[in-house]
């Protein structure tokens, strides 16, 4: 059986995949066995695959931690729900052979909570049903037996374990240093006032102190004090008699 890859991509969102679901309780599985529940599922799956339908058949077991066994047809070990990722592995226009895959979903199965095993091509599944059915039941039983060995703590134990783990991590983790962001107050701009230029002391220009110019004292020019010009004395001309008298006087 082959199919164009693009067709699968289109069929899943359009819900054109044939889906079969069977739900069982842990008590029913314990009473009838897992093989009986899987046999019922396989009967429906085989009929759908024989009709050339892309098929998904689910066996859901409602245990404390739910478990789902799922049979799917696909071209790669990828859940049909993730068919939009097929372009990463194929040319979407390409045609690929269809295989049968057993998928187990459970929180306890592994870290990814998902296990996918390729069982056989669809053509082999249809041509050798007994052998392939036995292979599917054996693989599923192994997974189921493993899941029964996983112990689950009670809610009280789980809460105590989580609390202890949190305390352990808190003790191992150094307390974060408290970052004290001290805001530096911006330095005040001290606008130094320019000192007013020192006032020039108005110094009167003096040799010690500038003397006011001395007042000119108008001194009258005197040798000590300017003598008034002597009055001309007009001597009267002596008469001849007077000259004779004077001469006489001189001789005496």
Describe this structure in words.
35% of the residues lie in helices and 17% in strands. The strands form 2 sheets. It has a 5-stranded mixed β-sheet with strand order 2-3-4-6-7. The protein contains 7 helices and 7 strands; from the N terminus they run βαβααβββββαααα. The chain has helices at residues 5-11, 26-32, 34-50, 122-127, 129-148, 155-172, 240-251; strands at residues 2-4, 18-24, 55-61, 67-74, 95-97, 99-105, 114-121. The protein has a domain at 2-148. It has 252 residues and is α+β, with helices and mostly antiparallel strands. A hairpin with a 5-residue loop joins β3 and β4 (67-74).
List the helices and strands and how they pair.
Elements lengths: L1 E3 H7 L6 E7 L1 H7 L1 H17 L4 E7 L5 E8 L20 E3 L1 E7 L8 E8 H6 L1 H20 L6 H18 L67 H12 L1
Parallel strand pairs: 2-3
Antiparallel strand pairs: 1-5, 3-4, 4-6, 6-7
Spans of at least 5 consecutive residues whose pLDDT stays below 50 are: 201-209, 217-230, 246-252
Q: Going across the major beta sheet, what is the strand order?
A: 2-3-4-6-7
Shape: flat
Structural class: alpha+beta
The end-to-end distance, rounded to whole angstroms, is 205 Å
* Percent helix range: 25-40%
Largest sheet: 5 strands, mixed
Number of strands: 7
Measured on Cα atoms, how large is the radius of gyration? 68 Å
Number of helices: 7
N-to-C SSE string, H for helix and E for strand: EHEHHEEEEEHHHH
Mean pLDDT: 81
Instruction: Estimate what percentage of residues fall within beta strands.
Output: 15-25%
Biased composition (Low complexity): 219-243
Region (Disordered): 160-252
Biased composition (Basic residues): 175-202
């Amino acid at each position: 059986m082959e199919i164009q890859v693009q067709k699968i991509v289109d069929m899943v969102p359009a819900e054109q995949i044939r889906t079969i679901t069977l739900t069982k309780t842990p008590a029913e599985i314990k009473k009838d066995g897992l093989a009986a529940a899987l046999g019922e599922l396989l009967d429906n799956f085989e009929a759908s695959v024989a009709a050339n339908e892309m098929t998904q058949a689910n066996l859901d077991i409602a245990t404390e931690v739910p478990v789902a066994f799922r049979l799917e047809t696909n071209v790669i070990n990828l859940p049909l729900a993730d068919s939009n990722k097929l372009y990463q592995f194929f040319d979407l226009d390409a045609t690929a052979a269809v295989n049968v895959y057993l998928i187990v979903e459970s929180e306890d199965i592994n870290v990814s909570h998902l296990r996918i095993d390729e069982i056989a091509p669809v053509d082999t599944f249809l041509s050798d049903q007994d052998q392939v059915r036995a292979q599917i039941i054996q693989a599923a039983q192994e997974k189921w037996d493993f899941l029964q060995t996983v112990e689950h703590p009670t809610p009280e134990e789980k809460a105590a374990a989580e609390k202890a783990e949190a305390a352990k991590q808190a003790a191992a983790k150094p307390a974060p240093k408290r970052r004290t962001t001290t805001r530096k107050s911006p330095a005040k701009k001290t606008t130094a006032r320019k000192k007013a230029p020192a006032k020039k002391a108005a110094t009167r220009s003096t040799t010690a102190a500038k003397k006011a110019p001395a007042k000119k004292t108008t001194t009258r020019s005197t040798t000590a004090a300017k003598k008034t010009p002597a009055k001309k004395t007009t001597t009267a001309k002596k008469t001849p008699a007077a000259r004779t008298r004077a001469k006489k006087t001189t001789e005496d």
